[in-house]
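Memo to structure team: turn this sequence into structure tokens by end of day. - J.P.
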Amino acid sequence: TSQTFTAKQLRTVTATFTAPSGSVYSSNTLSAYSAAKTYDFTLALNRAVDASKIVIARTSGSLAVPTVTTTGSLASHTIRVTVPASTLTTEPTSTFTVTVDGDLVKTFTVKQAKKPSISVATATTVGGASTAVSGTFTASTWDIKSTGFVTSNNTTLSIASSSNTGTFTVNRKASFLQTDADLSATITLVGAYTASLATCTVTQNKVVYSFNPTSLSFTYAAANKNVTVTSSNAGTISSGMTATSSETWCTVSVSGSTVTVSVSANSDIASRSATVYVTYLSSRSQTFTVTQGPATVTIGGVQWAVYNVGDPGSCVSSLPSSLSTTRSASHGKFYQWNRKVAWATTGSVSGWNTATPSGSTWETANNPCPSGFVVPTKAQWDALISATNQTNGGGWSSSDYGYKIFTDKTNSANKLEFPAVGLRSTDSAGTLGNAGTWGYYWSSTQYDSTFAYFMYFNSGGVNANYDYDKPYGFSVRCVRQ
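Reply from structure team:
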């Protein structure tokens, strides 16, 4: 008879498989994030089993086989699944079985997320735009944040829309001033586990302009000049550009990349300036300056006004050569010597003053010229006549007024034109005489208390050596004081 032995039948092993907090686990499948991460599952058994009797086997895929560690008791173990960072644009899977003491207790799958990426259709744009830039991203649905999964770090280049199907749009700045800064934004694909899955950059730049020439300068006369506009970052400008001027006397038009600047005649004895800017692709340029010289010509060192005095303190703005028939826009007004009352150069007048003006010179209080200018002296008239050649223009008749052209002997570009407006006599009606055939222009130099010198001309010649009664009404041309 042998000794006895005891046979003990162990219970079948059952297990509870618990996923770690923060993981995406459903239907026996772990949806792993794209970032490298370890996932510690808890394997709770219904009886104590040594870890050496727990076998994990991979039945498909290529993911490394998880490891097993005992956590506190032989009835509780940790199964660690290590998932590397994603490198594929697909979602590969690996399936594993867990056998405990010969019993199959668990089959589970690990699905790896796609490698995330994000991009925009146009990374750099130039100029303002009201339309958004489109973009796309690639990511597994569980890998991205549930809301706000596409963000921008620029409040202007903000996210206009986004869809978890992989599309988004980025707002753009509608228009630029030249003083505005260029814009740049980092667009981030935000993950459920990782703050930044992928990024791309969006840049919106203002148009960079160059002008040739960089400024324009005009004489007092009406004229036009061109400025060519180019851009170093907006390509060839062929259409769609506009131009704006700060002043009404300076007008602008655009053809292709050329800005035509037109200035009207400057009747002021002061120079003037305007600024012009262009706008292309909703992006405003820097300005270029347009300067127009005063309505003056310097001959023999004396700066002469180009136009006759009109109302006190101002000049007309037309040359007789630019007009026809009576050339009335070039006349200005008649003045009696040392008086600041303007009289018409055509028709009849009322209230004509026949008294002899007081004073021995043309006094400041009675000066009809614009500020900074005065009635020329006899010596200045003499010098002008000596320094110039005089020629005729017009018809020298009452229907086709003549005018005298004074051309600088040393510089033929310097010219003055004087219309033959005639005069108003000293009778009580201030009768108009010699209109269209003679010109009379006061000097500030008196001959005596009754008479004063003047410059006069007809088609046959010019002289400044005569004097007339001070109550006559003559034209006035000014010189710089």
